[in-house]
Amino acid sequence: MQRIWAQRALVGGAWADAVAVDIAQGKIRSITPGAAPAGAEVDLLVPAPTNCHSHAFQRVLAGLTERRGAAADSFWTWRDLMFRFLEQITPDQVEAIAAFVQMEMLEAGFGASVEFHYLHHQPGGQPYDRIGEMSERIAAGAAESGIGLTLLPVMYQFGGCDQRALGPGQARFGNALDRFTRLVEDAHAAIVALPSDCRIGTAPHSLRAVAAEDLGRVAALAAGGPVHMHLAEQPAEVAEVVAAHGARPVEWVLDHVPVGPDWCLIHCTQMAPHETMGLTETGAVAGLCPLTEASLGDGIFDGVRWAGTGGRFAVGSDSNIRISLAEELRQLDTSQRLRDGSRAAFATQERSTGRRLIEEVALGGAQAAGRGVWANGRFQGGEIAIGAYADLLALDADHVDLDGLSPDTALDTFVFAGDSRMVREVWSAGRHLVAEGAHIARAAITARYRAAVRPLRDGL
User: For residue 319, which phi and psi values (nearest 5 degrees)?
Assistant: First the structure.
């Protein structure tokens, strides 16, 4: 048993004073307001959200793709550069990068991570001797960082809706269904040695990359775990799906795929209002990556409408060009303001913007990662509650910009005027991994990362 004592804690949707939180086997066992200080003492304690969408290896590209070639730059030209980079990266490098990315997530205030893992094979597409080699490396990174990992092996069959062959960079992603089934089995084996909060799901990459008849089979391989899929990210993608299937991506999914609360649809930045309303009714989580979506020119998620109808949402760092919980939430809200000419887009009369965003992405992220349970038709997780995983974030109330603020205003300041320097302590399923603002293994993880990425950067 370990105890955290917080001056203020967000418990059951309300602030409580002098709260003792007792943790055993990674979960919260008791919550006692009005308790005497004991154990790890912190200022402001809130749920630590899950990072719902990451491609760890892309961290190496941060800052290296901002030059324009002869043609106009776009998501698709960026993707071509990413594919060229994939001709070089090795399993050892992937492991070092994954640990570093996960460390940065924890230091930013995330308590867990969902890895949308599609880099499976050797350059040219030949499988490694162990088909799950790269899954093992993601798991090894999590063993070093300590983060709660949901590993999603990604099914990737084709280069487009016309089922064209995969190109040179994409060849490292590709699997037919039988080989993908073996890969999922290897991924299960890869996480056996990790803590019990780590789990497996599956991810059909997108409507462009997976045959329609295989979507349900890939989802079934999750065996009750989460299922994630990219959906409606780019205008060109929408046009391609309309040409191939006669409907927009979200329309087609709603008519043909048994989407439910165990699904997380990533991006959805190209939705019409009727699609937003229809998708919220499924209970699926919208997985949003506002910094990457802005970087790639994807568009703006229909967030106010989605949240206004009770839709669950989470945030992730996707391409990992910048890993910051505060900045993802800031971009999410301010993009709505820019589109609508509004302010405090996600605020309600009861909850300030920062408070609502933190609470909602903690709940949605836990659901998307499978870090909780369903009871009486309600998902329970992603909150400071008895029985929930102890994914916890403590902000530093002594920070110059937080000093003397009320709790809601402190969360607003973290989101809109702050950054990761306000993050003081982080626990992932009770594992105390960030102490006094730094990961407990920062020096070793950073040294490995430096050595791993230097030859990759030299080759770009």
Answer: -75, -10
The whole-angstrom separation of Cα 243 and Cα 189 is 40
Q: State the Cα–Cα distance between residues 72 and 60, nearest whole angstrom.
A: 23
Given a contact cutoff of 8 angstroms between Cβ atoms, the answer to whether 280 and 310 are in contact is yes
Tokens 């909150």 identify what position?
383
d(CA 140, CA 95): 6
Burial class, 254, CB count within 10 angstroms (exposed 0-12 / middle 13-18 / buried 19+): middle
Q: According to the 3-state scheme, what is the secondary structure of the chain?
A: CEEEEEEEEEECCEEEEEEEEEEECCEEEEEECCCCCCCEEEEEEEECCEEEEECHHHHHHCCCCCCCCCCCCCHHHHHHHHHHHCCCCCHHHHHHHHHHHHHHHHHHCCCEEEEEECCCCCCCCCCCCCCCHHHHHHHHHHHHHCCEEEEEEEECCCCCCCCCCCCCCHHHCCCCHHHHHHHHHHHHHHCCCCCCCCEECEEECCCCCCCHHHHHHHHHCCCCCCEEEEECCCHHHHHHHHHHHCCCHHHHHHHHCCCCCCEEEEECCCCCHHHHHHHHCCCCEEEECHHHHHHCCCCCCCHHHHHHCCCCEEECCECCCCCCHHHHHHHHHHHHHHHHCCCCCCCCCCCCHHHHHHHHHHHHHHHHHCCCEEECCEEECCCECCCCECCEEEECCCCCCCCCCCHHHHHHHHHHHCCHHHEEEEEECCEEEEECCEECCHHHHHHHHHHHHHHHHHCC
Name residue 163's amino acid.
Answer: Q
Do the Cβ atoms of 161 and 240 come closer than 8 Å? yes
Residues 5-14 have pLDDT tens digits of 999 999 989 9
Q: How far is CA 297 from the centre of its chain?
A: 19
CA distance 210 to 418: 40
Residue 47's nearest CA partner among 12, 95, 85, 92 is: 12
pLDDT at 21 over 90: yes
Cα 371 to Cα 391: distance, rounded to the nearest angstrom: 10
Cα separations in angstroms, 36 against 5, 43, 47, 385:
8, 14, 21, 19
d(CA 343, CA 373): 35
Catalytic residue ranges:
267, 318
pLDDT of residue 64: 72
Q: What is the pLDDT of residues 136-158, one digit of tens each?
A: 999 999 999 999 999 999 999 99
